[in-house]
Amino acid sequence: VSRVGNIDRISPPKPAEAQPNPQAAAAGSAQGKPPAPKAPDPLRRLGKATPAPGVNWVNMRGPEVDGLDVETLTRMEMNHRKFIWQNLQKIRANPGFEKLYLVETAPQLGVRITRVLLTPKPVSHADMESGAPVPDVVGYGGGTSKAWPIPYRALLPEKLDQLLAAGRCIGAEMRMADVVRLIPNCFVTGHAAGAAAALAVQDGCRPRDIEIAKLQKVLRQQEAYLGEPAAG
User: Residue 168: left if φ>0, alpha if ψ -120 to 50, beta else—which one?
Assistant: First the structure.
């Protein structure tokens, strides 16, 4: 991630020849000529606006590699920082973009996914596609075309007791892991794990032995969305 400044001082020229010419395009089409390729738009590489005036936030994505390997992470860190600077220089070379400058880069390369917990019931793509409720639902996640249920079992390790997971390390299929990590979804699993831990202490039992119906009642009282409540 990097931030670039002086976005509000960009003033690219707009020559007449750069304006669309429908008549020329129609003539070229009639003669069987393909339309001239458009010049790359430097603005497309300038990310999204931030609350700071004239400053944009630019996100980068890298290849899928082993996020636990120090040598790989070091190499990617160096390559990404070089690319950020090289990309800025290329954008500056465009007329009107000369005053752009690099405000900052992230202090460290961000790794989205590494290990996830092995759980009795991971968050699954099939559950998202089917839309069917799961009996131990403790919340719903988003960030995809559909909302998807989060089962309490996705927060429980398969073997280890007295532990609950929350955030991006809960049990999830790899194709769902990239959305499980999103901050709003982490709020949901953190809320569920915290309520479950309190209930386990209150009832003097292991987290895997709490009454799911009681946990769901507590979560609903705290305005968590668990889908439509069962009749009765």
Answer: alpha
